[in-house]
Amino acid sequence: MFPGYPVDFLTVYLLSGWFGNAYETWKGTLNRHLATPDTLSFTVYLVWPLTEDPEEALITIKKTDAGLTLRCDWFPDEEFPLQPFFSPDRTQVLLFCLWERETMFLHLK
């Protein structure tokens, strides 16, 4: 999906306006057994704010004719467009997603 980019890790920065401007950070690794040339799948875990019960979610980044899209457990019936930004040395990718009151930055590394 990203030729020449070693993508193994994902950090998600989520700002949600649904329940009073909550900010969360999720981190995870690539699910290699679910990856295809057009799809990357990550299991991510909530790292901030800390909770007693560790939360996890599945995030899928998919290449379509219209560009990159995001699917996640938080919105199971939705697919969101992603806007990519590449680092100058082309070793990292930042994806931006904006949907209603949700703002997400996905840092692929």
Give the end-to-end Cα distance, rounded to a whole number of Å.
13 Å
Work out the helix count: 0
Note the quaternary state here. Answer: single chain
Mean pLDDT: 86
Q: What is the element string, with H for helices and E for strands?
A: EEEEEEEE
Task: Estimate the global geometry from the Cα principal axes.
Answer: globular
Strand order, sheet with most strands: 1-2-3-4-5-6-7-8
> Which residue ranges are poorly predicted, with pLDDT under 50 across at least 5 consecutive positions?
none
Question: Proportion of β residues?
Answer: over 45%
* Secondary structural class: mainly beta
List the helices and strands and how they pair.
Elements: E1 9-16, E2 22-30, E3 39-48, E4 56-64, E5 67-72, E6 75-86, E7 93-99, E8 102-108
Antiparallel strand pairs: 1-2, 1-8, 2-3, 3-4, 4-5, 5-6, 6-7, 7-8
Overall description:
The protein is an all-beta fold. The protein contains no helices and 8 strands. The chain has strands spanning 9-16, 22-30, 39-48, 56-64, 67-72, 75-86, 93-99, 102-108. An 8-stranded antiparallel beta barrel has the order 1-2-3-4-5-6-7-8. Strand 4 and strand 5 (67-72) form a beta hairpin. The mean pLDDT is 86.
